[in-house]
């Protein structure tokens, strides 16, 4: 197949993922169906799709709600493509560790935020105080 055609198909698949995959992933994450959300995220990455940062953060939050703090930390540290976690991603991971009663990790993540060039916000500080 011609390289330009392959590239065109990849762009088309990325657009399709953007329209349907993000919506599906977001719905699963909001319904706290963390296993299904992580599965959809993994399938997208395997198919060379790059999900939006908001979907990755939603998956981290869903994992945290289910007390799957280990998985939340893996998602934070292994974002797909060249995505860089933002303050929402970090706060979701801190919240996951808090729900998992991993207060040392909460403090560690809070301390690592500046080195990751992520500005702490009110939620970051309140999560740190809760730990």
UniProtKB/TrEMBL annotation:
<dbReference type="Pfam" id="PF01535">
    <property type="entry name" value="PPR"/>
</dbReference>
<protein>
    <recommendedName>
        <fullName>Pentatricopeptide repeat-containing protein</fullName>
    </recommendedName>
</protein>
<keyword id="KW-0677">Repeat</keyword>
<dbReference type="InterPro" id="IPR011990">
    <property type="entry name" value="TPR-like_helical_dom_sf"/>
</dbReference>
<dbReference type="InterPro" id="IPR002885">
    <property type="entry name" value="PPR_rpt"/>
</dbReference>
């Amino acid at each position: 197949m011609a390289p330009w055609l392959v590239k065109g198909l990849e762009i088309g698949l990325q657009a399709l993922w953007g329209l349907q995959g993000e919506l599906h992933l977001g719905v699963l994450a909001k319904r706290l169906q963390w296993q299904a959300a992580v599965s959809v995220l993994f399938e997208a990455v395997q198919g060379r799709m790059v999900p939006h940062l908001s979907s990755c953060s939603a998956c981290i939050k869903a994992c945290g709600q289910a007390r799957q703090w280990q998985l939340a930390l893996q998602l934070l540290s292994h974002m797909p493509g060249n995505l860089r976690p933002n303050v929402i991603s970090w706060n979701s991971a801190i919240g996951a560790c808090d729900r998992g009663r991993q207060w040392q990790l909460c403090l560690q993540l809070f301390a690592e935020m500046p080195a990751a060039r992520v500005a702490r916000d009110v939620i970051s500080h309140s999560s740190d105080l809760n730990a």
